Amino acid sequence: MFKRFIKFTVRGLIGTAVDTAVLWYLTTYAFTTYFAKYVLAPSISFEIAILVGYVIIYFWIWNHRVLNNFKDFFRRIPKYNVAVLFSFAVKLILLNVIQQIFHFEVLICNLIALFFSGFINFFTNEKIVFKEKKTVVEDIYENL
Q1: What is the DSSP letter of 41?
Q2: Over the stretch 27-76, which tens digit does the pLDDT of each residue have?
Q3: Count of other CB atoms within 10 angstroms of residue 122
Q4: Distance CA 86, CA 3 (A)
Q5: How far apart are CA 49 and CA 43, in angstroms?
Q6: Are 52 and 37 in contact (CB under 8 A)?
Q7: 116: number of Cβ within 10 Å
Q8: For residues 4 and 132, is the Cβ–Cβ distance under 8 A?
Q9: CA 61 – CA 143 distance, rounded (Å)
Q10: Under a CB-based contact definition with an 8 Å cutoff, are residues 57 and 23 in contact?
Q11: Helix-then-strand count for the chain, H and E
Q12: Within 10 Å of residue 30's Cβ, how many Cβ atoms?
């Protein structure tokens, strides 16, 4: 599981790079209005980063738990999106709680919150989105 967590962390770094690059491109070359630059562009870049992260997770991290077909790939995307959004909500809550209790600067609060929400995101994917299927023997043994 530790190896998957390291891969998951690498996926997070790649996702951050993709998010930043897409946001830079959209705000520099594609959009000019305030709404487009500060609402639409970050939303698009965030979702593209989520999709890139999902592809990495599906084919590299939890590839031993997937069926590697079109249906399975798209069946898991909604669960993955919910897991990421849940993790993001936890991060926002933690960021604000940490700031209120310790009065740290926002960047420090964000890093601490990312640390904890990253674990939540990993375990949500490990236990729900890419849940390991039990073998028939394990299932029979568990029902005894």
Answers
A1: H
A2: 999 999 999 998 899 899 989 999 999 999 999 999 999 999 999 999 99
A3: 21
A4: 23
A5: 10
A6: no
A7: 14
A8: no
A9: 30
A10: no
A11: 6, 0
A12: 13
